[in-house]
User: Fold this.
Amino acid sequence: MFKNSEVKKYTITYLIVIFLIGVALYLLIRLYIHNVDEEYYHELITATSGTTHLEDTGRDKYMPSEYSSAVKTSFYVLYGGVYGIFFILSVIGYFLGLRLYKTPMIAIAKVTDNSKEVLEGNYDSLQVADITEGDISQFYSIYTKMVTAIKQSKDKEQQEKIFLQDLIADISHQLKTPLATLSIYQDLLLNNNVSAEKKQEMLKLMGEQLSRMEWLILSLLMLARLESGSIVFTMKQEPLLPTLQMSIQNVDMLRNEKHQTISLSCPPDITLYHDKDWLGEALTNILKNATEYAPPNSNIEVWVEQTQVMTMIHIKDYGKGIEPESQNKIFKRFYRAKSNVNENSIGIGLSLSKSIVEGQGGDITLSSEVGKYTCFTLNFYSFK
Assistant:
C-alpha cells in the first residue's frame, strides 16, 4: 500500500494550489468592486445637478466608507457567498482528487509488492488490485499478464529440468544392464580357453546388445525432443490410407515370423491433417506391440472411422490382453505390463506413440479384456 508521505505530498500541493486560486479569486472580486465603484461614481455625478465631474461636488474623491449600509452588506454577502462556495468545492475537490491520486498509487504499490515477490521467486502470492479506470486498468492488466507469463516460463523451465534429470536417470538405468553384459562378454573373449564357436556366439550377442542400446538412445532422444516441443510436425491434409499401409509394411518381418495377418479397412477418400512420417512411426510402434501380444496365426485388425468432427484409427489384436491395473500405466515411459511377452522390451514404444499423436492434436484410448483382446484407438478431432 502507498505510504502516508504520498498523501502529505498531495495535500501540501493541493493547499498551495487552493491558496493561489483563492488569491486570484480575491483579486477578481476586488476588480468587480472597483467596477461597482465606477458605476456608483457615475450615478453620484448624474444625481448632482450642473456637474460633470466628481470635483464639481466639492469633493476631491469618493471614499468606499461612504457606501450605504445596503451596498456594504451586499459586498459582505458577495465575499461570504463566493468563499463559502469556494471552500465547499475545495473540500469536495480534495477528496475527489485524493481518490484519483490514490488509484495509480494503489496500482504502483501493488506492482512494487508483486515485483518484490517475483524477484524472490514467489509467484503464488500475486496481489490483484481492483482497478477499473482506463489506462491504469490496462497497465495493471498487462503487468499481471506479464508476471503470469514469467511464472509459466519458470514453471516450464523447472519441468524441463525435472524431465532432463529423469531422462538422464532413465538412460543410465536402461544402459546399465547391456553395458554390464558387454563387459562380461569382453572379459570372456579375452580368455584363451573359450572356443572359437563360443566367441562367435558371444560376438553375435554383443551385436544384439549394441543394436538395442542404439535403438534405446535414439528412441529416448526422439521422445525428449517430442516432449520438449523442439520437433515441428509437417502437417498436411492428405489421404490416410498410404500412411497406414506404410506402417503395416514396417512390421511385415515381425508378423511373418509368427504367421500373422493384418486386415486393413480404410476408404481411400478419407483424408487427415497429419504428419505422415511421424504418425507412421506412432502406428508402427502400436502394431509392433500388437504383433508381440497376438498369438501365432492370428489376425490383427486395423480399421478407420470418420465423422464430421473426428477420425478414429482402431488397431485390435486378439492376444493376452492387458490387466485393468496396467491399463492406466501402459503409456508411461519404461512401464512394462506383467504379461509382457518380450523380455527385451523396455516399454518406450507406446510412450513415444502417445507423444506423437498428442503432438498432432489427437489422443490415444485403450480398451482391453484379459485373455480376449486389446484395442488401441487414435482419435483426431477436425472441427469444420
Notes: The chain has a mean pLDDT of 77. The longest helix spans residues 134-189.
